[in-house]
Design brief:
- The protein is of the alpha+beta class and 174 residues long.
- 16% of the residues lie in helices and 26% in strands.
- The protein has 3 helices and 7 strands.
- The chain is globular, with a radius of gyration of 18 Å.
- The two termini are 19 Å apart.
- The model has no long low-confidence stretch (mean pLDDT 84).
Length: 174
């Protein structure tokens, strides 16, 4: 279940919980939701990002790595077309993911500004940060611990790019 509560600054706090019979609610995620209107940043230079991420991993290898970790995604959750791997100025790995809304859920595209399958695909693309050099799966599955912000400036296309870079932990609750 999702529970919304008011925050002092006018934002809303959302918590995603599961509740099993006879047990205390279990918190899975928490976030602050605001209606702030932000200015969209300048468009990213996809050509330059592509040149900076020359090592391409096709979707088949990405999902084979997930399968090897026991994370088997169905056809509606396979949004990754490819991952490009590169390094930033500090030598840290970064990922450029090419995503497309899967045909299995294409009929639902107009129902969302940010389709859940594309959002999940963006999270999935983070595997590029930990893939072995040969493109095989790491030893165990991991999920992002924190996401600093998700800003939606308008309806997204069904074919898009995501750029993932590691950042040091900031700590603190939302």
């Amino acid at each position: 279940r999702v529970v919304f509560t008011g925050a002092a600054d006018g934002a809303r706090r959302a918590e995603v919980l599961s509740v099993a019979a006879g047990e205390e609610p279990r918190l899975h995620a928490q976030m602050l939701v605001t209606d702030a209107v932000a200015t969209a940043p300048a468009a990213a230079d996809i050509a330059a990002l592509s040149l900076a991420h020359p090592r391409m991993i096709p979707a088949e290898r990405v999902y084979a790595a997930f399968d090897a970790m026991g994370l088997v995604y169905g056809p509606g959750h396979r949004a990754i077309l490819s991952l490009g791997l590169g390094r930033d100025a500090n030598g840290e790995r970064s990922v450029l993911g090419h995503l497309r809304l899967p045909d299995a859920v294409a009929g639902t595209a107009s129902a969302y500004a940010l389709h859940p399958s594309l959002l999940d695909g963006a999270f999935q693309a983070a595997i590029g940060l930990v893939l072995e050099e040969d493109g095989t799966a790491p030893k165990g599955a991991a999920l992002p611990f924190a996401i600093e912000a998700v800003e939606i400036f308008g309806r997204l296309d069904t074919d898009l790019w995501v750029h993932i870079q590691p950042r040091p932990a900031s700590g603190g609750d939302p």
